[in-house]
Amino acid sequence: MVWVRVAHPDHVFFLALTRTVYVAVIAQVIGVLLGVAAALMRMSKAAPMRLISGVYVWIFRGTPLLVQIFFVYYGANELLGFTLIPNSLGLGLFSLDGAIVGGILALGINEGAYMREIVRAGIDSIDKGQMEAAKSLGMRYGLAMRRIVLPQAARVIIPPLGNEFNNMLKNTSLLFAIGVYEMFADAEIGYSNSFQPVEYFLGVAFWYLVLTTVWTFIQAAIERKLAASERGEELSFFERVQAVWNPVSAWRSAR
Amino acid sequence: MTDVVMRAEDVHKRFGRLEVLKGVSLDVQQRETVCIIGPSGSGKTTFIRCINHLEKVDGGRITVNGQLIGYRQKGDKLVEDSEKSIARQRTQIGMVFQRFNLFPHKTALENVIEAPIQVLGQSRDQAAAEGIRLLTRVGLADKTDTYPGKLSGGQQQRVAIARSLAMKPALILFDEPTSALDPEVTGEVLSVMEELAHEGMTMIVVTHEMGFAREAADRVVMMDEGVIIEEGTPEHFFQAPEHERTKQFLSKIL
After folding, report:
1. Chain B residues near residue A149 by CB distance under 8 angstroms
2. 8 Å CB contact between B7 and B214
3. Could you tell me if B180 and B100 are in contact, meaning their C-beta atoms sit under 8 angstroms apart?
4. Inter-chain residue contact A130 with B93, CB threshold 8 Å
5. How far B165 CA lies from chain A's nearest CA (Å)?
6. What was the pLDDT predicted at A232?
7. Distances from the Cα of B13 to the Cαs of A136, B79, B223, in angstroms?
8. b/e sequence B223-233, b meaning 16+ C-beta within 10 Å
9. pLDDT tens digit string along A145-189?
10. Measuring CA to CA, which of A167, A191, B70, B100 is 20 to 30 A from B166?
């Protein structure tokens, strides 16, 4: 029966899979933005900025993600005194359930704390002469950061960012606990209806593996392209085809 | 008086306990090329970095085209100027670095046109036309689309010179522009700089290249231990340096 879950997932399961993917993507984007902001605050001359950044990382890296998810979804509105997490969020053609909004926010905020260190290491790795050259041309700090330093830091940030996203794909499963119908929730509910743990949990594990494997290939392609442009080359069409084909042929010959 | 581009008056700078500049005064006239020589640790690089406020001065004052650099007069005190006006002042002061500091993620032309577009607000077409003209002038017309990583050190430094020229500065500071280069390519950079000097660009050049000083400098300034100890024409330095420290130093580098 496990092969039924693996090979013939139903419509509902695919909706859950889609939800897992977009929750992970949006949360990761939020995490990167927060990480950049917190990293810049960490390097600020103003002590309060550095303090806020420090406290943020201290709290969100020092407490369990699951606790943060529950707290943001159930506690944020009450703590803040206004509705941060709505019951549902209308987005034109479709709407997001409040649990999804809260879940994405919690994952994103948590991720930002980890991204801060990655972004900071990336910025630190850029030679100080770059900022000086930009300043000597009359660029202000913000412009120099945006146009000169961050684009270069991005090359350093992207490989660890890829690993973070791999984690994010798996961490979305925690949102099951606040009632988000994502991939793991589908499996858990299927299991409790059927008492077929092997089929459902092995099945869902297989699909997480599919997602992370696909991501590994995408990540490798991005890193190859970065390495090429670092050498000052743009890949020709032929090289692009080859870059895609090489892993495929390696896999074929390994069989 | 009117054609003084850069005036430094009794400039002091310290790094922690170490006093690097102990009262440096220097006037540079329009169209003048001044070479600053001196042993390492004499403060010459620190001094020119003070001129565009990459280093804050701790005492004295520097003006460029009559404008006080980096500070604002407030009552009888000087307070550091806003980031915005410091940035505006830097647009008229070019700088060429020892290690080029080209932007590696941008092509030669993109390096040259970045600040004219982003800072001066020029259109891309206008900036690119001027950028190609400048790259042609430094002999790199065929390298406009090449990334710095694919250029030799000499070529990179020539792009860096074109990049600072693109801002149409009143003054260009050169911080040991050839000391990171292989000997066989220093010539190509120096000849670009000599041309600039002959065309009347105002330049302050920290260098050990006495050949360049002889060809292009109007004045040579010798610094030692944070002060200017001797000043004169290149001929003066070749023929009759007065100071004992100058004689020692020249005998080592010539």
Report:
1. none
2. no
3. yes
4. no
5. 10
6. 55
7. 19, 16, 14
8. bbebebbbebe
9. 999 999 999 989 999 999 999 999 999 999 999 999 999 998 898
10. B70
Of the candidates A134, A140, A147, the beta carbon closest to that of B83 is on: A140
Q: How many residues does chain B have?
A: 254
Distance, CA of A255 to chain centre = 33
- Choose among A130, A139, A231: nearest Cβ to B115: A139
SS3 B27: strand
In this model, does residue A239 exceed pLDDT 60?
no
- ipTM higher than the 0.90 cut: yes
Position B55 pLDDT exceeds 60: yes
Residue pairs spanning A and B at CB distance below 8 A:
70
Q: Is residue B69 within 8 Å of B63, Cβ to Cβ?
A: yes
Q: How much helix, strand and coil, in percent to the nearest 5, is found in chain B?
A: 40, 30, 35
Q: Which two tokens stand for residue B171?
A: 């003054």
| pLDDT over threshold 70, residue A2 | no
Q: By C-alpha distance, which of B44, B181, B34 is closest to B99?
A: B181
Q: Do A140 and B91 touch (CB under 8 A)?
A: no
pLDDT bracket for residue A5 (50, 70, 90): low
Give pTM, 2 decimals.
Answer: 0.83
Tokens of A5: 């879950």
CA pair distance A110, A117, nearest whole angstrom: 13
Query: Smallest Cα–Cα separation from A16: which of A114, A80, A100, A140?
Result: A100
Give the distance from residue B158's alpha carbon to the nearest chain A alpha carbon, in angstroms: 15
Average pLDDT over residues B154-159: 96
Helix (H, G, I), strand (E, B), or coil: what is residue A160?
A: helix
Residues from B contacting A (CB-CB < 8 Å) are: 52, 54, 83-84, 87-88, 90-91, 93-95, 97, 99, 101-105, 114-115, 118-120, 146-150, 163-164, 167
Which one of A138, A147, A231 has the shortest CB-CB distance to B167? A138
Q: In what order do the strands lie in the sheet with B18-29?
A: B18-29, B4-15, B59-64, B67-68
**DSSP secondary structure letters along B82-126:** PHHHHHHHHTTEEEE-TT----TTS-HHHHHHHHHHHTT---HHH
